[in-house]
Amino acid sequence: MHPAEGFELIIAMFLAVVGLHYLAHRLSLPPAAALIVGGGAIAFMPGLPGITIDPELVLVLFLPPLLMDGAWFTAIAPFRRHMVGILSLAVGAVFFTTAIVAVVTKLLLPALPWAACVALGAILSPPDAVSARAVLQRVRLPRRLSTLLEGESLLNDAAGLVLFRFAVAAVLTGGFSLGAAVGSFFLLVLGGIAVGAAIGAAWVLLLRRLGDDTLMIALTLLVCWSAYIAGELLHVSGVIAVVTAGLTCGWYQHVVFSASVRIRTVAFWQVLVFLLEAAVFTLIGLSLRGLSERVGDPAVVIDTMGLPVLVIVAAVIVARFIWIFGVDAIVAGLRRLGWLIARPLGGRAALVMSWAGMRGVVTLAVALSLPEQMPARDLMLVTAFVVILVTVLVQGTSLGWVIRRAAPREDPTSHPPLNLHAAEAAMFRAQLVAVEREAHDDAGRLIHPQLLRRYQARATAGQNFEGSAEELTAAITSHFDVIIAAVTAGRAELVRLHRAGEIDDETLHDLEHDLDLEELAATAAKG
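Given the sequence above, the corresponding structure tokens read:
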């Protein structure tokens, strides 16, 4: 394929992404499911050239920015508070699922070496960060469950990739040392943390000195790939390096970004992540053609691989249920004995967590990276693809229904000490103190009476309001609705004046920018 044709194909794919997203929205379908199905249909269009996916390129191109985006918006305090539960899922569940899949595969295919069975388990074990994000954006979960799932999706790829590499090395060399593997795992993780922290610290220092909005946004974009590539070059976990750098940048962006940089960065990242996530699911669908060409006639594949594949898929799903319900039962038992203060999830929350185990781009890329001499390579590829289809199309599509039926309860200990209105009141009081300090000149004369009255009114609005929190929210919403209506009217008048030739382009853009900022502030305050 000529490079120009490849670029044209990429543009056509993104146009198809927009159309499939719109169709999914109109039909109330999960976008991930529509993109995979649509990508699969596009792959078999007559005249379309074959698409070869480089697994290493997929990992380095897609994984770092998507992990960075998740880490950037991760709340540090809940993440640290639930770290034990996150590690139980990101490490414990991955290892347990790998073991279950390896045992089941060995029972089904006794001739297959144990190391190859473990490699297949490592491919299938980690739920995917992209798939989890795509589903979590469409459902509402209690705060604790969201933290656990988001934290798991950020960290579990590292465990799965390490297991996979050791298993493949064992197949190719015929040797394996458990002690060396455990030591290497901790070295990879700790090294990834160190690399990510160093790059995050460098980002903070550079941003304080750049002074240019465009350079700051560009540098922020490059952090994710820099962390991943540096981690891999230093032979530590690139995944952990990206997550650590993302957590660092997300923590410090509040003090190193100006309001304009933050607004532009968030807008830029939203579009970038949308395109990358959509491309991931579309590529999964497009890869179906290459897979079918490799393994041959679908009827023959079903006859020769159908039963083992279905049993392994079932083992992947059931293993997550066993781990989550088993760990929760142990936590509940230890709590009753007084040996543990952590609260168990409970049956409803455990059901939701167990069902939220979608696989995606990492499973596909790792499966495609299997060496040609790997025993049962075709079976592994087919199994990986079927696991992705089943978990995304079945579990991902039905997760919202499962959440509504299970109705998991919010953990009362997960709420922060201050609610939205209390935090807003504290912010207004701090603003009033600053305005009172600056509202008078050195002689004590009031020089900013209007500003002082404005901030006094904002600081005392909540105290003077008599009514419930719901009534206060309604009053605030109505207040900012009026502001937004005024902004809309002002913008319409500006456009009318411009169209009538009464103001020039520069005046239009300057005043429209002020209105845009006012509307953004009002919309954010409205919630």
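Residues 51 and 290 are 7 Å apart (CA to CA). Try to locate this feature in the token string yourself.
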